[in-house]
Design a protein that fits this description.
single chain; 3-stranded antiparallel sheet; 4-stranded mixed sheet; 7 strands; 2 helices; 150 residues; alpha+beta
Amino acid sequence: MKQKIILCLFLIAAVSCGDLKEKARDSINKGGEVVGKSATEFFEGVAEGIDKSLQCELSLSEELQEKGVKTGKISINSLPEGGTNNLLTLYLIFDKDFSSSLTVKAFDKNGLEVGRSKLDIKSEAGDAGYYDFAFDRRTYIEVKSKIRIE
């Protein structure tokens, strides 16, 4: 009889510990979920703030606008061959047939030219795509640079 009572007490203790362990695990998971969501929101906010503060001013010549060229997304990266922030990727949209060279000029925040890149492009009306403009490895497209497409 004593053994049965001890066995029952042992089973009750084991079940209780399992429930307690389960509740603790659930609490930890919920806490981790809240922290994860908060951290994600924080880092998204930081990324948006950085993106807005690093944004360059982009302008397209009137001549290109008349030829049906429009711009979309812009990104600045580094060439694998060397340098920092010297690869400009532009998403270009063509409303008309286009076959010509585009020259991209980069200016620092004080208006001084820091580099040029030229690319021959042939595109049909309605086409769009990403185009890479590689600058000299010494060119550094800095924060709030001005970029002119001619």
